[in-house]
Amino acid sequence: MSLATFREQRLTQPHSAMLIFSDINISYLSAFTGHAATMLLTSKGNYLLTDYRYFEQAKLQATNFTVICRDRANQSLASLIEDLLFQDDCQHVGFESEHISVMQWQQIYQQISQLNKLSKIEPISGSVEALRFIKSTSEIAAIEQAAKIADTALAIMLNSVKAGITERELAIELDYQMAKLGSEEVSFATILLFGERSALPHGIPSDKQLKHGDIILIDFGAVVNGYRSDMTRTFVFGQASAEQKHIYQLVQSAQQAAIDEISEGVLGSHLYQQSANILLNSEYKKYAGEGLGHGVGLVLHEQPFIGPDCHTAIEKGCVITIEPGIYVPGWGGVRIEDDVVLTDKGLKILTKSPKNLIEL
To answer: How far apart are CA 138 and CA 226, in angstroms?
Structure first.
């Protein structure tokens, strides 16, 4: 269905072709999960170009494609592409400019520009990504399963929280539990920070030891069938201070205000504004995070990117994160993040871990 839709949208001319270089986009369109591949779609055929390392795998997975094993010692990728374009009488070629280096493209361009019938070569940006914006039932199910793994792993890992444990040790334990529960890999490098270091929105776990009164900020996710989850929870080790409780309540209210407004056709900028109305009217406005969330799927950060300038409308099947935060340098930070999707039955929150402020 995705391949057919893409062909219908992009190959609108009888002599047109499209070069896909992104591993993620190739996987999305063909089901091939390996690497070292290039996809060429023409008005006459679907081609997946790879080498001996992935040839058999590609034949098994990319069943709607003619899989070609390139002899790397005797044929360049550029010359193979040239041969196929000539064979299929292609005159117009689009290519994924953001997923290929300048040097690699120069080699291909130099080769294919010699074709007499080739009259137009143009960069195409975000074409497959736009198709990935709306998730199918199976894609949503994979993200939901990844979120379930992350929820369970977090609950198990919290049993290891104790004074003196380091950020790095706790992050490793969380990653281990996700792997044990079936995650293919971590969705991204786990962010797990204590105390004042929690003010680093994307900080790297260190050897800092946990002490009573510290905020614990954890941003992490699991992967199922290539699809990623993304969740943040914030805790306090010991008794929370009045300021910690106050900031947590602000962030929680800001998140809920945005979630309450999610409906079909609502703009991302509107969702951002609902959250910003709370955070930017508080005494912590200069410490509020700039964005509100993003799409999530085969890639951690996908369209839409939800902020003040996001004019993309939310549609059914679009999986997004809602993650406002306050980050006070030298004091600490609070972020709450959930994965949500709009369905025929309304909004569904895929991440289930409790969001009340928990004192560990």
So the answer is: 12
